[in-house]
Write a structure and sequence with these properties.
globular, alpha/beta, six-stranded mixed sheet, 259 residues
């Protein structure tokens, strides 16, 4: 598996008469971990949904390795790009293994029997999130952190080169937030998959991401390496926040301290 280049070209997004994002151009680096940041209501999740072809742009386009997302076959696109929405719900009574197996749907035709390749993909995904021994457990019995790992395993079992996640750490306590972000970065380093997440915690995003996209109420504020994006001027423009930025004493990545 190798990462792909996901790009937006002069992208405008909105709902009815309201424009959320206008004229946005960005290129997310292939095979790296990116995070989309910004204040509430600035269009972070809307942008992620557009990158996943869940909403159609008002104008502009999203491309995957140079090809327009909206011109691609849906099943073939699902073999290249996976999205994990915010706070997904599992069907009642479903087990961990059954839920993760649903990630193989794009690779299986109508009435096609379950294959060794499918079984191997599910096993590898469960192993990657350290949940293989829980395959027979009902999802409803798991802790919040465990459930989030299972959802990530479902997306990994899909076997794509791009993984999009909408606020994967929401509702998790700090140790579980770190656990999920460590898992995603480890998966990126091992497989080269391109990972893009919407995140709220600036310091965790800086620690676990290679590339940041910072949005404000007026659109794109900055994109690039964490130390180039998380500056006092950019934080003031995006959030109206007075802050000092210093090196994290543990990771050396930018650490935002509000004033």
């Amino acid at each position: 598996m190798s990462g792909a280049t996901l790009s937006a070209e002069d992208l405008t997004l909105g709902y009815r008469d309201r424009r959320v994002i206008e004229g946005l151009t960005l290129a997310l680096p292939p095979g790296r971990v990116s995070a989309i940041l910004g204040p509430n209501g600035c269009g972070k999740s809307t942008l992620l949904r557009a990158l996943a072809r869940l909403i159609e742009p008002v104008s502009g386009r999203v491309t995957l390795d140079g090809a327009d997302l909206h011109a691609q076959n849906t099943r073939l696109l699902a073999r290249r790009l996976a999205i994990l929405p915010q706070a997904p719900l599992a069907p009642d009574g479903i087990t961990v293994g059954e839920l993760v197996a649903r990630g193989r749907a794009p690779w299986r035709g109508f009435l096609q029997p379950w294959s060794d390749r499918d079984a191997a993909a599910v096993a590898q995904a469960l192993e990657a999130v350290a949940m293989r021994e829980h395959a027979e457990r009902p999802v409803a019995e798991l802790s919040g952190g465990q459930r989030q790992r299972v959802w990530i395993a479902l997306a990994l079992a899909q076997g794509t080169g791009v993984l999009l996640l909408d606020e994967p750490t929401t509702w998790l306590d700090l140790p579980h937030q770190i656990e999920v972000l460590q898992l995603l970065r480890r998966r990126n380093r091992e497989s080269g998959i391109t990972i893009v997440s919407v995140l709220h915690d600036l310091n965790l995003a800086a620690r676990f991401s290679d590339h940041l996209v910072l949005l404000g109420d007026r659109g794109l504020v900055a994109q690039g390496a964490p130390d180039a994006v998380l500056t006092a001027d950019h934080l003031r423009e995006a959030f109206g926040l007075a802050a000092r930025v210093m090196p994290d004493p543990v990771s050396g990545t930018p650490m935002v301290v509000p004033l």
